[in-house]
Amino acid sequence: MAVTNEVSFALEQPVVVLDGVSMTYSVPTTAREGSDGARRVLQRQSSSIVIALSDVSLVARRGESIGIIGRNGSGKSTLMKLINGRVPPTTGAIYASSRPTLLGVSAALVPDLSGRDNIMLGCLAMGISRAEINRKFDDIVALSGLSDSIDRPIRTYSSGMGARLQFAIATAVEPEILLIDEALNTGDDQFKGQTKAKMDELRSKAGCVFLVSHSLGVIKELCSRVLWLDEGELVMDGRPEDVIKWYRIFTKHLAAGDRVLALKTKRRMVNELRIPAVQALESGRRSSA
Amino acid sequence: MAAESPSTPNSPVTVVPTPVNLRGLTRVGAKPSFPRYLGSLWNYRHFIYFNAKADVQTTNSRDRLGNVWLVLNPILNGLTFYVIFGVLLNVSRGMENFLGFLLIGVFLFQMSSRAILTGSRVIRGNLKIIQAFHFPRAALLIGINLRELLAAVPVIITLLLLILVIPPTEEISWLWLLILPALILQALFNLGVGLILARVVSMVSDVGNVLTFVLRFWMYGSCVMLPITIFEPYPALKGIIELNPLYHLLEIVRTAVLYSELPQWQSWAVLAAWAFGMLGIGIIYFWRGEESYGRDE
């Protein structure tokens, strides 16, 4: 690959920058030997280290919608949580132009409150003023498609209804950076259409979207760039057609039981990967606290 | 600077030096400066109020008697203590209006212990909201204490009615208005303690288990059901109690309501010093841990 237009890249203002981000979890494991009571109470469980992400660097720019694909446990959700700031990275740092909003599958906010009150609470928690909430309220309800059940406590909602409500609340603020973790897979076809319209609207407003999905069709349709993660490692970072093509080849080998060929494919892609070594032009606020 | 060395030596990973303009970007999850934190708390005042109101609505919403429990709870509590300390143990020897003394103690102490206990559990209790939205977390504690203050209004009215109705009855005087500043100082103190404990419990959740026992000691050390004269033979203990802000809170309210006298300025001084001191320490201590709340372990 030739040296591309890096100068113009550098002049553009990035929205999200990941600088050598790694994440390791210390996971408690249940010890099999020595199960006498006193030792179990006094000693903490033994733990093993799990590498969820290793040394991921990337620069995301305005207007990009980035799909993230990979097998189960490849680190997709961890990456989303890190960008969202829910967990701190073990090493490296993540910079963003504003606080990224994460849309997950966990829907319930305050189960005992009605959908209406949850919209109020959610919007206030995002720092929207009361006047603005009143102005946006009908749009939020319309997007959630819950006008008939908006006064019921949300503990009575189905999980799909809850996910729709959360999507409607989270997009009320028109986040600059939107992280979507499988949220599009819930909901019926009508809602999917509305979601896509909302997503297109958000992207057109110069936002930056990260989307995790197991559906390669959704990724291909919605994304302008795709990351392929495997076992915590960034394998590919490029155009959707290319990445999806090679990912399909990889999973086909795996499905056929040919691990060697699959890993060979993966290695080849990793070797072609060009990792950005982030060099700060401006001092920025690189370290606080 | 990372990614300088490839993770696996046998694969020649291409590292591209990428100049990135980091101006205008902030590290995700970094806490704001202290003045900006205080400012953002003010910006979230509508959230604080709505959250407090929603809490009042939902707390007893699954009980048949609903919010009647706000009043019923301290009455039953006061009755229990009256039966044990007033009737069975007869601690009241020589005290005028022991029931009034006891009711004020139980009602007011319960307000503090509830606010502090709920405050200490605030991070775990609101995990979903904390993980979903990025608001200053201290807003949750202010909400809890605002809610307790709102819930205190019917409780205090009940208390005063009981004192007016149950013999020996007291007369209404302007001094009763002194309850208001005393309650506000109490709420500020509760908020400060809650802020400190919320961070401590979020780091070491075991502390939450110890807290109930500490509060029980604190109750006896606040002269809720026993007059301070009981402690005359132990001057060291009495000295400690005289530094206890909740003891002085009870003193102020009892002096004003039961004895129709102006409370001593020393009591006000101790209570105010604790209230503002704990609030100041609490907000700074809580802010310093702002990045750590609600994180998945």
Helices and strands in order:
The complex is a heterodimer of chains A (289) and B (297).
Chain A: H1 6-11, E1 14-28, H2 37-42, E2 47-61, E3 65-69, H3 76-84, E4 91-96, E5 101-103, H4 115-125, H5 130-144, H6 159-170, E6 177-181, H7 189-204, E7 208-212, H8 216-222, E8 225-230, E9 233-238, H9 240-255, H10 259-272, E10 274-280
Parallel strand pairs in A: 3-7, 3-8, 5-6, 6-7
Antiparallel strand pairs in A: 1-2, 1-4, 8-9
Helix pairs in contact in A: 4-5, 5-6, 9-10
Chain B: E1 14-20, E2 26-27, H1 34-43, H2 45-59, H3 69-88, H4 98-120, H5 122-125, H6 127-132, H7 138-165, H8 179-203, H9 207-220, H10 235-241, H11 245-257, H12 265-288
Helix pairs in contact in B: 2-7, 3-4, 3-7, 4-7, 4-8, 4-9, 4-11, 7-8, 8-11, 8-12, 11-12
Which band does the percent of strand residues of chain B land in? under 5%
Strand content of chain A: 25-35%
The rounded Rg of chain B comes to 24 Å
Rg of chain A: 21 Å
Largest sheet entry of chain B: none
Helix/strand-derived category of chain A reads alpha/beta
Number of strands of chain A: 10
- Total domain units of chain B: 1
- The run of helices and strands of chain A is HEHEEHEEHHHEHEHEEHHE
Tally of helical segments of chain A: 10
The tally of strands of chain B reads 2
Structural class of chain B: mainly alpha
